[in-house]
Amino acid sequence: MTGPNKRTVQKRPDGKYEVVKPGASRPSAVTRTQADGIDRARTILRNDGGGELAVRAGDGTIRRQDTIPPGNDPRSSKG
Fold first, then answer.
1. What is the sign of the dihedral through the CA atoms of 70, 25, 11 and 57?
2. Dihedral sign, CA of 21, 25, 29, 35?
3. What backbone torsions phi and psi does residue 39 show, to the nearest 5 degrees?
4. What is the per-residue pLDDT across 17-45, written as a single tens digit (0 to 9) for each?
5. Could you state, in order of their start, the residue ranges of all structural domains in the chain?
6. Strand ranges (DSSP E) for 12-68?
7. Within its chain, how far is the Cα of 46 from the centroid?
8. pLDDT-derived band at 78, boundaries 50, 70, 90
């Protein structure tokens, strides 16, 4: 069984942002801004049946996470 579909948006050394699937050898997309990267990651996840989106801060920590429907939301609360 495969794990949940995930994408991470993170800054590259050249100042651009990349959308990365864990374990992939190259990024799914490269964008000029973080906002463009987040939008692109959402589109990729929606087209792939939903999943988890993580946004990394400059220091490498995850600063934001989101579930793209119909993904597997780890919280069972409504809203």
1. positive
2. positive
3. -60, -45
4. 999 999 999 999 999 999 999 999 999 99
5. 6-68
6. 17-20, 29-31, 51-56, 62-68
7. 11
8. low
Answer whether 0.85 is exceeded by the pTM.
no
**Type of residue found at 67:** T
Q: What angle do CA 30, 39, 55 make, to 5 degrees?
A: 75
Strand 17-20 with 6-11, pairing: antiparallel
Cα dist from 60 to 27, 54, 65, 69, whole Å: 16, 11, 14, 25
Please count the CA atoms within 13 angstroms of the CA of 14 that sit on its side-chain side.
6
> Residue type for 42, please?
R
